[in-house]
Design brief:
Chain lengths: ~400, ~250
């Protein structure tokens, strides 16, 4: 609503229109910046989701197999030639185990939903495929007969990586990430918080303390790959921690998270009013009693948020982990802290470099899983902060 | 009149800036002593040096003796924690811990081992809150946060918290300057009640308050103790012109 400003009154200031226009223009600039960044985000999310959604389903074909003793010995020969070119090798490979589990099948004919291979699956999902024309028409015919179905891709969530695209899953990476984060958390959080407590509550305010604080702030901005080199030099080469293990990766990420946790914990401690400390000291409490029972509880929400955000950042970190060898091909989920493992971002990185088309959707699906975990972590951080915040 | 606290030639520096010059003063048992003077005259600094709160200021350097019951609290063989247990302090801004009313009072006595958890502790909390004249107002909501009380109630809670550790001396740094007149009146009445059992030293900017409640008044100016005498003499018949000028409002 534009109302004309009356120049003939006591309230009129010269150039008022110009100044108002200036603020309006500035508001517009700021708003367009927001719109631009939001549209980038939306574009990214839509692109990832569009590419990733197909990975959550895979096509299977309904086939009948008459089972005898021979079937168990030579699974690759059970199907006609043109069919066996379309069915997943991984499915055929696991077939003898199925028979072993069901001996009563021998001598009968059974119906199975056989997993199609990645090329057939990609063709059915409507992307480019290296299939020959006759294979394509066979798939079309099967689809017409209702013998092909898209089913939920449980493989993706319950197996590790594989060189057979339709058999590749994210599970090993998820387990690897969880173990690595456990190591990171149990090292970085206590060390970081105690460092912050010392620097903020106990350390004398002298040159040495100042130098330490400045350097910690600088460390928070160091490229993460350097922490990878440090981890490689110290943990693996010097202390002999096994390469590629969640222990090595977790310790390296702990190094990276420490400065962030220290800086945010220090800020949280600093925001506790001095009057609380004075009240404690005036009652004859010791420094530790004041810190532990009165200052830390008040700083807790801030410490917690800082730690979770540092861990979320560590969880999405790839570069230092590549240096300590967590980019390994890991088909089975890791069982101990010292055996070879991979983590979610490293798995995504590996898949993104694979030549087969089917890995594109897996890459996007992996990103979706990682993003979901990170967004949940950040949401938890916000909720916990709200929950523990002291009401004044 | 017994001397409770004997201060002897106390000098204090913040860095190179001398904040207190050769303060010597006797503070009496079961009396209220008011410290008056313009802002920045060193009265709060002096008060804080009576329970070594200035130890927390890194640049502060102190010289001289503060003798409480015959023992210098700045002696090397005395732990600062035990000094502050016997010489409590109430601040200008009420600063209850963000915990329940009960915990506010019980926390320090439990840590000092004055009482153990249980009925002893409950009794101490009750008697302390009663002595601070706030029991009737909070007895039904001891688990409510201390910060939920009004400003005046919070200040009385802080006094209860101080009493609970059974000190000898209570220092008060402008205890009513953040409060409304009704709360102030309650705190003043409470101080008159408390002086029967404790030595009270209070800083105040309120001349009427000093005149109303203090037995002795000390006038500070630019880090020096200018005049110290019974309150009546200070207000009715000050020896020095400077004191008269200040209390009549001609400067400050």
């Amino acid at each position: 609503m534009e109302t004309k400003i009356n120049k003939n009154n006591n309230f009129y200031i010269p150039q008022i229109e110009k100044r108002n226009k200036q603020s309006k223009r500035f508001r517009l600039y700021a708003l367009s910046a927001v719109v631009l960044s939001l549209s980038f985000l939306a574009f990214f999310l839509i692109d990832i989701i569009k590419a990733g959604i197909p990975a959550f389903t895979q096509s299977s074909v309904k086939i009948e197999i008459s089972i005898d003793e021979e079937t168990a010995n030579n699974p690759y020969g059970i199907l006609e030639r043109d069919m066996s070119r379309l069915v997943s090798r991984a499915w055929l490979r696991s077939f003898p185990k199925e028979i072993e589990a069901h001996p009563e099948w021998i001598g009968t004919t059974q119906t199975f939903w056989a997993l199609l291979n990645a090329e057939a699956d990609q063709y059915l999902k409507g992307t480019q495929s290296k299939l020959k024309e006759n294979q394509k028409s066979k798939l079309d015919a099967l689809l017409q007969e209702g013998l092909i179905e898209r089913k939920f891709n449980a493989t993706f969530f319950f197996t590790g990586d594989s060189k057979i695209p339709e058999n590749a899953g994210f599970y090993a990476a998820i387990v690897g990430s969880v173990l690595t984060m456990l190591v990171t958390m149990s090292l970085a959080v206590p060390i970081g918080v105690m460092t912050a407590v010392y620097l903020e509550e106990f350390a004398p305010d002298n040159k040495l303390t100042q130098i330490i604080e400045i350097n910690i702030n600088n460390l928070a901005a160091i490229p993460s790959i350097l922490f990878g080199l440090l981890g490689l030099a110290i943990f693996i080469n010097f202390f002999g921690v096994p390469r590629s293990s969640p222990l090595a990766g977790g310790m390296t990420l702990a190094l990276m998270s420490l400065p962030i946790i220290i800086v945010s914990s220090k800020a949280a401690l600093k925001s506790v009013p001095a009057s609380i400390r004075q009240a404690g000291y005036a009652l004859g409490l010791t420094k530790w009693q004041v810190t532990k029972d009165h200052v830390l509880p008040l700083a807790f929400p801030g410490v917690l948020t800082g730690s979770i955000i540092a861990l979320a950042q560590a969880m999405g970190e790839t570069a230092p982990l590549i240096i300590v060898g967590m980019i390994a091909f890991v088909p089975d989920p890791v069982t101990s802290l010292t055996s070879a493992a991979t983590v979610m971002p490293a798995q995504i990185f590996t898949w993104s470099g694979m030549p087969e088309r089917a890995y594109i959707e897996k890459t996007a699906a992996g990103i979706m899983v990682l993003l979901t975990v990170l967004i949940s972590l950040n949401t938890i951080a916000v909720l916990l902060r709200k929950k523990f915040e002291v009401k004044w | 009149m017994d001397v409770k606290v004997k201060v002897d030639k106390l000098n204090l520096w913040y860095g190179t800036n001398q904040a207190l010059h050769d303060i010597s003063i006797d503070l009496y048992d079961n009396k209220i002593t008011a410290l008056i003077g313009a802002s920045g005259c060193g009265k709060s600094t002096f008060l804080r040096s009576l329970n070594r709160m200035n130890d927390l200021v890194e640049s502060a350097k102190i010289q001289g003796n503060v003798i409480v019951d015959g023992k210098n609290i700045y002696d090397k063989d005395i732990d600062v924690v035990s000094v502050r247990k016997r010489i409590g302090m109430v601040f200008q801004q009420p600063n209850p811990f963000p915990k329940s009313i009960y915990e506010n009072v019980a926390y320090a006595p439990l840590k000092h081992g004055i009482v153990k958890k249980g009925s002893d502790c409950d009794e101490l909390v009750e008697s302390s809150l009663k002595s601070a004249g706030i029991w009737e107002e909070v007895k039904d909501k001891l688990q409510a946060p201390g910060t939920s009380l009004s400003g005046g109630q919070q200040q009385r809670l802080c006094i209860a918290r101080t009493i609970a550790v059974k000190p000898d001396v209570i220092l008060m740094d402008e205890p009513t300057s953040a409060l409304d007149p009704i709360s102030t009146e309650k705190i003043e009445a409470l101080m008159l009640e408390l002086k029967k059992s404790y030595t009270i030293v209070t800083v105040t900017h309120n001349m009427q308050q000093a005149a109303r409640i203090a037995d002795h008044t000390a006038f500070f100016h630019l880090g020096e103790l200018v005049e110290y005498d019974e309150t009546e003499k200070i207000f009715v018949n000050p020896k020095l012109k400077k004191t008269e000028d200040y209390i009549t409002g001609r400067f400050g």
